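I am hoping you can look over what I have pasted underneath with an eye to the fold:
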Amino acid sequence: MRIPLSWLREYAPVPADATAEDVMATLVKVGLEEEDVHRPTDELSGPIVVGQVLTREEETHSNGKTVNWCSVRVVPEGQKQTLTGKGIEEDGVQGIICGAHNFEVGDKVVVTLPGAVLPGNFQISARKTYGHKSAGMLASAKELGLGDDHNGIIVLSDLGLDPEIGTDALEVLGLYDEAAEVNVTPDRGYAFSLRGIAREYCHATGTDFDDFVLKLAERTPAANNSGLSVELTDDAPIHGKPGATRFVVRSVSGVNSAAPTPVWMASRLRLAGLRSISLPVDISNYVMLETGQPLHFYDADKLDGGLTVRRAQAGEKLTTLDEKERSLHVEDLLICDNSGPIGLAGVMGGASTECSTETSRVMIEAARFDEVSVARTSRRHKLSSDASKRFERGVDPQLQAAAAQRAVDLLVELGGGSADEGVTDVNNTVAAEPIELPAGYTAGRIGVDYSEEQIVSLLEAIGATVETGSEGFTVTAPSWRTDLANKEDLTEEVARLDGYDKIPSTLPVAPPGRGYTAEQVARRAALNALAAAGMTEVFAYPFVSEEDNNLWAAATEGEKLASVKLTNPISEAEGWLRRSLLPGLVGVLKRNLSRGFKNLAIYEQGHVFIPGKQLGSKEIPGLGVRPSDEVLADLNAGIPDQPRLIAGLFAGKEHEDMPGATARAYDWRDALDASRLVADSTGIDLGVAQGQHQAFHPGRTAALLASDGTVIGYAGELHPKLLKSLDLPERTCAFELNFTALLEDASGPVGAYGIYGYPATNQDVALIVDAAVPASEIADALAEGAGELLEDIRVFDDYRGTGIEEGKKSVAFALRFRANDRTLTAEEASESREAAVALAAERFGAVMRG
């Protein structure tokens, strides 16, 4: 909301020397947020004055352009020239070339003289052009930054002005005013007006607010039978509330719609962020900004009969003021006459009844429409207007008659019209329900010991009616505060008006036994470990294609997985929620590769979405009422399972080449190590076995196993054909691990290894087995057979070649034995090793290699 200071001073005691920054600092005290400052003169400087055209000679030049060679007086005749600027004549008569043709000799215009600077740092100087020395420029509205009108220069008489020659044109046009811009939150619609801002300024400064709307209401005529007939109907109210509760109609005849908008009004509208269009439109906008009540003006002679407010019928269409034909929805609330729809209620009027410069009889509509209905219509048609923004936030239901009266007054004063006798006021407004505010509630919530007198005075200051009882207060909110609905709202108002700075800042003491959950601790440990290992965390969009879900989340080629389809996807090509993190990581990898980053190790953690038997619910419950347990159960049953996964990609080399250190290319071992690092950081043993996955290399893929043997992820090199199709580097590796399933494998707190004072004994064993037997299974058998004396086992060699039968392999293991109560003998270690070999021979036919 932009607030021109000259306008605000009419309704609030703003000091004459106060700046926009001062006003914003004051409004911040009552909870409004400062946004910006708008000063037209920030981009205008130097001599910009009122001039009078003395002569005008049309000249057509060789380029085919016709220009005017003019002499323009910029200093009153007989007065001394005091303007400064190189190129300003002593007699105050300037020679100026002008390409516009919308002026005549004798017209008073805006002249930018040499030395002036216009928006965009456009500097005016005397220069030779079209065979003449042109010392200045006759300015248009666009050149002064006042709007988009560049069809001609500003002719002051067209604006109803006749200032003295040489007068400061910026002052004549009201450009020395400034505006403070504040952010109005959705719950404070009353502040979307000068009336609301002035009230808040008075609250902040502790002064009384004299509500001009109440004075307007005092002289508003009562409804009579001479007014236009209006019928409010609503066969399909949204969330149980009718679309319109009040509708006021007034009319003014004999209006000169072609009359110029006064400069003071146009300049205020411009500072408030609206351009001047025509007198009727400008008056409508002016009253809206001033009071907060959106109005709509009809050309009364274009109306066919009375008005009806109703919901749209299937197949109806309406051409709105922006000249777009809109197909209407059955929830759209319409203003109709006998010809059909003539406006989208609360959003935008129709083109068929628009006011023009020929309009002489203006029909004024001031209505109160439902917030939800207007908001849905606005979003449905992607049509946001200044009116809809106010209706969406709630408009004072007692404001309509007063706002219509203000519009009538301005049309009579500025347009030369006369108010018609007829007044229509269909009022179905429901009185506000009283709110009970228990004694002590406010102090208990805010932590400030407010007295009874303070609470009463502060609530009465916002316009509420307060009755004091033995158990507290009964408060009736003012009509303009539609946001006040309960005791919490009233408590917030007391705290806001008394001053947030008076609320003590006391940090609560955290209760014992709280902190991160076990899952949060484990997740942070895993992510920190990956980052410490040199990987970079990234975040990708959770939206993928159905093909990507089937490729990355299904291990078997051709398998079709159920996925969650979005109703309104950003992209139809990626209209499903992910079942794997790898499609997003591939996109991040490709984007970085395209920008010259060749060596990458990235990872992501996040949820995936796996639909169950039921997806969604049969119906969405209505608003305002708590759903039943059955409905809630149905809603919960329709939510897809959302396990948390951790995944990573490796491409290129682990570091750049450098002297003394040849860079190693990433391979499948990096992906497997990253998976183990995630498990080790959380204190969980991760099983590894030979795996198969359609997106991974057939011989370089590890299946990651939980303790029960369930596959909870994969790690390895991606399939060469897939890498080629995705245009990714060769040997790109990846891992993906179901972190939720991994944590379910945790048995409890992680214990530290014991420190033993007795020496270890190391022995090696090499076993010949079938090539298809995984080394991890052999290691498990050796560990089981060796018993409790075995402290550690690891593979250090896998040989296949000369001396080994085809189809076989030799796998060598290093075994470390230790006892915690004595020094082991060589015989004890050997017995343990022989028991280990025996079990491996029994299970896999393993033979010791000679």
In short: Residues 2-37+182-208 form a domain with the Phenylalanyl-tRNA Synthetase; Chain B, domain 1 fold (CATH 3.30.56.10).
